[in-house]
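Appendix C: a fully annotated inverse folding record. The material below is reproduced so that readers can follow the format used throughout the book. The structure is listed first as tokens, followed by the designed sequence.
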């Protein structure tokens, strides 16, 4: 690979970390055998074959040996504070029943329960190769403590509802904005997450959208997740409609419109929006998402847990929609008897690949790297190994050749060997330098 003379000259000055690996996967560029990545100041300075970079590098490399080196994974949607709900909610007969059950379960937890769950979830993500996460936060006062406790790069989306509480939308939004304003600035950041169109009022959706546009914030919401949500908006009927009507939700926004069209009506669609799930689309919905450059986040294990119809990934991507992967929470991951489950994007890639066997492995890897970075607003900064990007790297044991390495990674079940975030090795991994 060829670098400008300015970059090559810079490699001879200043403190450098040089990381060698049997295979390097930059993701955006071709794979490299006997590759190396040069790091300084927390950012990637160069990537290429070691024999090409060696004459320009002052310093001894760290040779990770028989591994594939790739960018840290980008988990675009997670609920870290639900991690300890794993195995506590069996797959329900209806999505509405599941909402009732998780709401009841959350009501039995205290702040310490959520804090332990969040911290454990963050540890899981790092152990399984995620370095950047978009996390929906239901207990915002946890964040200063939790942010300080993890080397992850966290984008927290403060969850807003309002149907059950019957609070005024302005008061709900003002409270969330005050919580965001009080958070420390640094590696992490916080935005808004109106939970879903069925659990928020149209006015709250509109207000959140206006704030996000004015401040150039990312925003995320759960949308078109279930058949029951689809029936609620398109037909003004079904279990979700009936349940919410009994709970005195104003149902005048339902009937004759898809959930995606409902968001469009509230002026929520745009390149700032991360639409989570988007499983049940009507005719024209994929075109609408593409026209407004909305990002769609698919969570394969959660999708399988609920038994949803096949995810429309081909329809979305053919129209140019940016689709990426998330883990959702462990509350929506089937837990085999006697087995532990973890927040693990490699597992999400495996499940996606089984459901979509025609997809090239390299394209699946992009769903968990480049595409997630784009969705979170980090294009060019993470999800790829390229000069100027953050030095967020992971190493996976691998002995296969260049042609087979992408498939091996998509189906990887081996523990992560090393993790680097911001140019610093995360301790506790077998191949991480001291």
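Designed amino acids, in order:
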């Amino acid at each position: 690979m060829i670098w400008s003379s300015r970059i090559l000259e810079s490699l001879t000055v200043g403190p450098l970390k040089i990381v060698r690996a049997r295979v390097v996967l930059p993701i955006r560029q071709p794979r490299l055998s006997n590759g190396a990545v040069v790091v300084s100041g927390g950012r990637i300075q160069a990537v290429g074959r070691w024999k090409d970079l060696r004459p320009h590098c002052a310093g001894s490399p760290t040779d990770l040996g028989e591994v594939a080196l790739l960018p840290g994974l980008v988990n675009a949607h997670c609920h870290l504070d639900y991690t300890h709900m794993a195995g506590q909610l069996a797959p329900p007969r209806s999505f509405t029943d599941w909402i009732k059950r998780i709401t009841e379960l959350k009501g039995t937890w205290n702040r310490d329960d959520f804090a332990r769950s969040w911290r454990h979830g963050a540890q899981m993500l790092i152990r399984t190769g995620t370095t950047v996460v978009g996390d929906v936060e239901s207990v915002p006062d946890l964040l200063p403590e939790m942010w300080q406790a993890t080397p992850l790069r966290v984008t927290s989306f403060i969850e807003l509802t309002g149907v059950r509480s019957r609070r005024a939308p302005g008061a709900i939004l003002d409270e969330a904005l005050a919580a965001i304003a009080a958070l420390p600035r640094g590696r992490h950041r916080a935005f808004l997450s109106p939970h879903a169109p069925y659990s928020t009022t149209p006015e709250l959706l509109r207000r959140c959208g206006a704030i996000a546009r004015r401040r150039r914030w990312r925003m995320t919401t759960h949308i078109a997740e279930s058949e029951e949500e689809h029936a609620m908006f398109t037909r003004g009927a079904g279990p979700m409609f009936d349940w919410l009507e009994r709970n005195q939700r104003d149902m005048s926004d339902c009937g004759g419109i898809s959930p995606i069209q409902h968001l469009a009506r509230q002026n929520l669609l745009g390149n700032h929006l991360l639409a989570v799930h988007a499983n049940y689309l009507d005719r024209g919905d994929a075109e609408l998402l593409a026209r407004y450059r909305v990002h769609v986040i698919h969570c394969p294990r959660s999708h399988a847990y609920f038994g949803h119809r096949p995810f429309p990934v081909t329809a979305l991507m053919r129209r140019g929609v940016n689709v990426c992967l998330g883990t959702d929470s462990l509350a929506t991951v089937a837990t085999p008897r006697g087995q532990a489950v973890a927040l693990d994007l490699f597992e999400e890639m495996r499940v996606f690949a089984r459901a979509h066997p025609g997809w090239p492995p390299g394209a699946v890897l992009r769903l968990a790297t480049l595409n997630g970075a784009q969705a979170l607003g980090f294009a060019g900064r993470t999800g790829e190994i390229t000069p100027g990007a953050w030095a967020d790297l992971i190493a996976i044991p691998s002995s296969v050749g260049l042609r087979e390495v992408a498939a091996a990674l998509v189906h990887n079940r081996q523990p992560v060997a090393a993790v680097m975030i911001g140019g610093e090795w995360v301790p506790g991994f077998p191949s991480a330098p001291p």
